[in-house]
Every structure is written in structure tokens, then in C-alpha cells.
Design goal:
The complex is a heterodimer. Chain A is an all-alpha fold. Chain A has two domains: 64 residues, no CATH class; 174 residues, MetI-like (MetI-like fold). The longest helix of chain A is centred in the first third of the chain and has 34 residues. Chain B is globular. Helix content of chain B is 73%, strand content 1%. Chain B is mostly helical. The longest helix of chain B is centred in the last third of the chain and has 32 residues. Classes of the chains: A mainly alpha, B mainly alpha. Chains A and B meet through helix 1, helix 2, helix 5, helix 6 and helix 7 of A and helix 1, helix 2, helix 3, helix 6 and helix 7 of B.
């Protein structure tokens, strides 16, 4: 009771103090989150020897873009970049179309069998055939070393589909759809002319989610696309970042011997991390304001 | 809002008045839309589920998934007698249990704190930066971990002034896995909580302030009750996923020397199934994992059900 009275009296003061404390804590957390990325960015434009001597905690040392030049001169990384770009574009278009085709019918309240189809899709969120049976089916449908093995098996992202379905149910005025149908528009016309244009915000979120998923994926390609010329960027980076080995093409183009090659490998580590991470980090802030809305719509009747 | 609802339900009744056949015919275009997703789901989700039976067969490519010789529980017996079986089971459970203990509360604290920040611009920028690591590939994250933990010139060793090779220490593996997981996903995890908190009526805060409630008291008495149901839901969902340790990060951070703690079932399933092409054996191990998971899920649900009888918030 005493404490309560005290804070009551000093509420003006304690408001300001708590504001300051909150901001300070936030800034500390932000530094923890952002610093590793900042460190990599700084290291990517510094001399590798200085990085390993601990001279680049805050600012670059002996600024150079050699690391980036080396990345773009490496044919394996270039192929990986190109592949990742291709998979991301095609995969995103395919996924978002699939999401619409599934989510909209399931959002129509009086569709006979709606419940059956909902359960049919939702079950696959909780149970699956597991790694090997799925692999064998992908193999049997002839998709090994075929780009479509990345898109078809995971075709319907059920979690995202539910968020989208709930968005349709809650955010698209039923009167508009009914009015269109009274005017003689078919279900398909209503969908294309009314539902799609009115759902641009959730579409933006889903496009970003799909892009991130495809751009960052490597496990699916590692299993289904064994041939090296089809590897996406993260899989190419595995040799550099995890196995820490220079590619043969690099070794042949560098004349300065082992030390020079070693230096190059270290530089490429930092710059390739930046190149792999940057595109998605640049894109997501544009749709950030829709994230919470999307999750709210999804949570209403999860 | 209310008006719209009644109009909608009115039309439902009007529609339901028509005979079923007519209603199905009216909606044929919607069924046509569902056609491709349904076919894909049958082929790539339901047939593999049916294909789990190769766990009880001796799969031969020539005889196919459904025609190979039936061997009963042979593969399960082999797994239980494998020398690393117990180690893999306990590693899997402990790794995800410890992850859960850390990664569950942290986003809640972050959200409660951020929700109290009154400077909107600062709040938004903070959120943007907190979300960032979520959008980075596990491959890149693990590359960064390896660089930072490198014994020669790695960031952590530079700061500590030491030269420890952390990834060869099995005692450090879980901490590395969990800490990097928090760094990557705790920020993203706040979204659900922030969205829920944005529903709190501002007048509640004002009233509490007038009554002299401190910031801390407002959080305890207004925010936490608001979050309770979503917290319980999240906890149940993650507890029901205890056996599903993500394959990617463990596999990328595993070294020969940290296997005492990094050897988990998911990695074993991959190595046996894809690398060694022991299809039936791998499927059996995966199925065993799923069964344990389902048992855990049911148990957690039962416990949660008991708890919710006592409290009114679920």
C-alpha cells in the first residue's frame, strides 16, 4: 500500500524515469541484435589479416571491395545466385497462386464440403510421411534434378493459407461479393475482380514470406537437386562457410600461392554472407506494417 | 460490423435453402480452383503418409513401396540396439527442452517491454531491427557462427582474449545452438504478442495511472492477463513439438568432436535415409520419432486441459 501511494505521488517523475530506462534497455538489445551483422559488414570491406587481428570492431581497416570482386568473379557463386533468383521468382509466383486457389474457396461460408477440405489440408500440418517416403515419391514422379521438386511437394503452405483464409473471411465485405453475384458475375469473376484487388496487403505479406523461404532454402535442393550446376546460393556457400574450402576455380585463378588463396577465402566468407543476406533484409521492412495485421487476422480463428 | 454479420448469416440461410445438388453446381468454379492444390496434396502428402509402411518392409526399388517384403519390427529392433540410440533420444529431447525454456519467455518479455515504449518511431525502428535475423538463411547464420567462434581470429575469442575452438567442445554445443536461436528468432516471436497487446483498451492504462498504478503494476495487472491465453497456446504448441529438433542447424554445426551432445535423431534419419540410402531403416527411425512426439503432444494436451479446468483464462 505504501509503495502504491509513493508511486502515485511521484507518477510524473517515474513516467520519465521509466521511459529512459526502457529506451536504454531497448538500445542495448538492439546493439546485441545488430552488432553481429554490422561486424560482418565491416569485415567484408576490410583486410582479412586486420579482421583476424581484431582491428575491425567498429570501423573497417584498409577499406577495399576485393572480397565482393572475388565473389562476383567466382563462377560457382554466380551460378548459385542465378539459380536462387530463378527459384525465388518462380517459386513465389507458384506459391502465392496456390495460396489464393486454396484459401478463397475455403473462406466461402456456404460451400458444401468446406469443412472436409479444410481438415484435409490442415492434417498435413501435423502429420507427414517423413523424409524418406516423401523423397521416394518425388523420385517416382520424376522430379529429381528438376526445379519443380522445390515447388510441387510443398505447394500449399497450410499455415499461410489459414492466415489468408481468415483474412478473406474477416476483411472482405460480404455485401460486395453478393452484389457482384446478383449482378450476374460468376464466382471466378468475383474472385478476380473483387477478392484479389481487395487483398493486396495480405498478398504482399505472402509474397515476402515465400520469397524469403525460397531464397533461404537449401535443404530441399540438397536432396532433390543433386547436380552441382543446379545448386542455389546457400548450398554453394556451404563449401565456403561450413567446409571452409576454396573452390577449384578460385585456386586456379589466384597466382599468389597458398597464403594469397587463404586470404581470398576468408574475404569471400564475409562478402558472400552480405550478398546472401542483403536482398531479404532490404525487402521485408516494406511490408512490416502488414505483419501484425496478418497475424491478427490469422489469430482470430486460428 | 454487426450489420454486416447479420446480412452475411441471412444469405447463408437463404443459400442453404436450396437443395445440395444445386449448391454444388453453383459453386463448381470454386471446386475447380481447389483441384490442383488437392491433387498436389494427395500426391506429395497423403501418398507418402501411406508409404510409411516401408518402415515395416524391406524396401527394394524393384518391388516398390507397397510390394516389398514384410519384415515386421526388424528395423525398430535394430534402432533400439544401436549403440547411439539412447544418446540420440536424450540429445533430441534435452536440446529442444532447453531451447523451449529459453526461447519461450524471452519474446514475451521483449513484447511487454516494447509495448510500454511511447515513442512510436523508435518503437517501429526497434521492431524492424529485431525482425531482421529471422530473414537470414540458416546456412548464413551457421556460417556466421563458425566465423565468430573460430579459434583463430573469431570475434568471441578476440573479445575473450582466448583461442578456444568452441565447436569442438560438446559442452558448448547446446549453448551455441540455443543462443543463436534466440538471436535469430526471439525478435520475430514478439509479433503475436505485440498484435495481442495492441488490442488492449487504452482507457484501461489511463484508469490505472489515475489510480496510481506503477508501470510494473500495469504490466502485471493489464498486459499479462491479456497475453495469458496466447501464451498457453504457444506453450502447448511448442511442447508438442519437442521431438522435432530442426535438422538444418544441428547438421551444419555438428563436428566429429561435439557429437556427444549434437547427435540427434533428425540428423540420423537424414544420414541413414539420404546419404546411405537405407530407406526402410531411416523411415522406421523417423516413425518412432513421430510416435514419441504424438505421445508427448497428447500428454501435454491432457495436462493443459487439467490446468484450464482450474483457471478461467484458457
Amino acid at each position: 500500500m505504501k509503495a502504491k501511494a509513493k508511486t502515485g505521488k511521484l507518477s510524473g517523475f517515474s513516467e520519465r524515469t521509466s521511459d529512459i530506462i526502457l529506451v536504454v534497455i531497448c538500445v542495448i538489445i538492439l546493439l546485441i541484435v545488430a552488432y553481429p551483422l554490422y561486424y560482418v559488414l565491416v569485415a567484408s570491406v576490410s583486410d582479412p589479416y586486420d579482421v583476424y587481428a581484431g582491428k575491425t570492431f567498429l570501423l573497417p581497416s584498409k577499406f577495399s571491395l576485393e572480397g565482393y570482386k572475388a565473389v562476383f568473379a567466382d563462377p560457382n557463386i554466380l551460378t548459385g545466385l542465378l539459380n536462387s533468383f530463378k527459384y525465388t521468382v518462380i517459386g513465389t509466383v507458384f506459391s502465392v497462386v496456390m495460396l489464393y486457389l486454396t484459401a478463397y474457396p475455403l473462406s466461402v461460408k456456404n460451400l458444401p464440403g468446406r469443412k472436409f477440405f479444410s481438415i484435409f489440408f490442415i492434417i498435413t500440418m501435423y502429420f507427414g510421411g517423413g523424409l524418406v517416403p516423401t523423397y521416394l515419391i518425388v523420385k517416382e514422379t520424376g522430379l529429381i534434378n528438376n526445379m519443380w521438386s522445390l515447388f510441387l511437394p510443398g505447394g500449399v503452405a497450410v499455415g499461410n493459407m489459414i492466415i489468408m483464409r481468415n483474412f478473406f473471411e474477416n476483411s472482405i465485405p460480404k455485401e460486395m461479393i453478393e452484389a457482384a453475384e446478383i449482378d450476374g458475375a460468376s464466382k471466378w469473376t468475383t474472385f478476380i475482380r473483387i477478392v484479389v484487388p481487395l487483398s493486396r496487403s495480405i498478398m504482399a505479406v505472402m509474397v515476402v514470406f515465400s520469397m524469403v523461404a525460397y531464397w533461404n532454402d537449401w535443404f530441399t535442393s540438397m536432396i532433390y537437386l543433386p547436380s552441382p550446376e543446379q545448386a542455389p546460393l546457400p548450398l554453394v556457400l556451404r563449401n565456403i562457410l561450413i567446409k571452409s574450402s576454396a573452390s577449384a576455380s578460385q585456386a586456379s585463378t589466384i597466382s599468389g600461392g597458398y597464403a594469397e588463396l587463404n586470404k581470398m577465402t576468408e574475404m569471400i566468407k564475409f562478402s558472400s554472407i552480405i550478398i546472401a543476406a542483403a536482398p531479404m533484409l532490404v525487402i521485408y521492412p516494406f511490408v512490416q506494417k502488414y505483419f501484425e495485421k496478418g497475424f491478427m487476422a490469422g489469430a482470430v480463428k486460428g | 460490423m454487426k450489420k454486416r454479420k447479420t446480412a452475411a448469416s441471412g444469405s447463408v440461410i437463404a443459400m442453404s435453402g436450396k437443395p445440395l445438388k444445386k449448391r454444388i453446381m453453383d459453386n463448381w468454379q470454386l471446386y475447380a480452383m481447389l483441384l490442383i492444390p488437392v491433387i498436389l496434396t494427395i500426391i506429395y502428402k497423403y501418398i507418402p503418409m501411406y508409404g510409411i509402411q516401408i518402415a515395416f518392409r524391406d524396401y527394394k526399388a524393384s518391388q516398390g513401396m507397397f510390394g516389398s517384403e514384410w519384415v515386421g519390427l526388424k528395423w525398430f529392433q535394430r534402432f533400439f540396439s544401436a549403440p547411439t540410440c539412447v544418446r540420440m533420444l536424450s540429445n533430441t529431447l534435452l536440446l529442444s527442452l532447453y531451447s523451449l525454456l529459453w526461447s519461450f519467455p524471452i519474446p514475451i518479455f521483449l513484447a511487454l517491454m516494447l509495448n510500454q515504449v511511447r515513442f512510436q518511431r523508435f518503437k517501429r525502428v526497434t521492431q524492424t531491427i529485431l525482425y531482421a535475423p529471422h530473414f537470414i538463411s540458416t546456412m548464413v547464420i551457421c556460417g556466421m557462427i563458425r566465423i565468430f567462434l573460430s579459434p583463430s581470429g573469431g570475434l568471441l575469442n578476440l573479445i575473450l582474449g582466448s583461442s578456444v575452438d568452441f565447436l569442438t567442445e560438446s559442452s558448448a554445443f547446446r549453448s551455441i545452438y540455443i543462443a543463436s536461436g534466440i538471436w535469430q528468432d526471439a525478435g520475430w516471436g514478439i509479433i503475436v504478442y505485440m498484435a495481442t497487446l495492441s488490442n488492449v483498451d487504452m482507457s484501461l492504462y489511463e484508469a490505472a495511472k489515475v489510480d496510481g498504478a506503477s508501470l510494473f503494476q500495469r504490466i502485471i495487472h493489464i498486459d499479462i492477463p491479456e497475453l495469458k491465453s496466447i501464451m498457453v497456446l504457444n506453450l502447448i504448441m511448442s511442447a508438442g513439438n519437442l521431438m522435432n529438433v530442426g535438422f538444418e542447424k544441428v547438421w551444419l554445426l555438428q563436428t566429429d568432436l561435439n557429437k556427444a551432445t549434437s547427435d540427434v535423431i533428425a540428423v540420423y534419419v537424414y544420414q541413414q535415409g539420404i546419404e546411405n540410402a537405407k530407406y526402410s531403416y531411416s523411415t522406421a527411425v523417423g516413425l518412432f520419432n513421430t510416435v514419441v512426439n504424438i505421445i508427448l503432444l497428447i500428454a501435454v494436451n491432457k495436462i493443459a486441459g487439467k490446468l484450464s479446468e482450474d483457471t478461467s483464462f484458457v
